[in-house]
Amino acid sequence: MAATHATECLRLEAVTVCVGFDDLLDVTLALNHPHLDTLIVVTSHGDRATQAVAQKYGAICVQTDLFAKNGRNFNKGAAINAGFGRFQYHGWRLHLDADIALPDNFRRILFNHTVLDRDCIYGADRVDVIGRKAIKSGEAAPPQHAHGFLVAPVPAAPLSARYVDTLRGYCPIGFFQLWHCSTQKDYPWSLGTAAHDDVMFAEQWPAQCRRHFPTVICHHFCGHAPSLGENWDGHRKQPRIG
Q: Is the separation of the CB atoms in 63 and 45 below 8 Å?
């Protein structure tokens, strides 16, 4: 095990679930793939457009009918577990939403400038990038570290809210969740929507093992200004970006 850790401690793999968001996935995969050793896209059997985007970027594409598990409209947690089965390494693992882009220097910040605790799950902040023009401008995920020491959202916009409740405390939510293979858990799917499964996944780590990255601000791509919970049932409310 020591030899495995020494050779794979800098491995980073990600699972992304995508049904009907192929236009945004086409942008985020291009930006995220350089940071990752393995990129796994989980989609439905009928979503040919998403399958084509995954193939375009050399991602592993997992096709499943688990989205309808237990008669649910969007059993995202069950589908995520199908992606977990395709991890290749004994390193770090990441769940990302299909509309999330990692910052430009993410891998360097993660492995060169962060003391990672393998017993912990990590979350990050995000900033909305709204509209087709902004997303496709070529500056959708520009550098966010100024002068080598200042971290600020680019484009300049308020950070989205973090999940902190009076019962659980801080929980990294589903758009960005990072953990080490040694603490791998199954993703819950009892509720059958994307509303709470991510919180249930995070709270499988003790409160003291849920950490926030102050050095990471992800980009959340949206066709128009988002509203809370608009895509949780699997029916897309956001307009396509082309």
A: yes
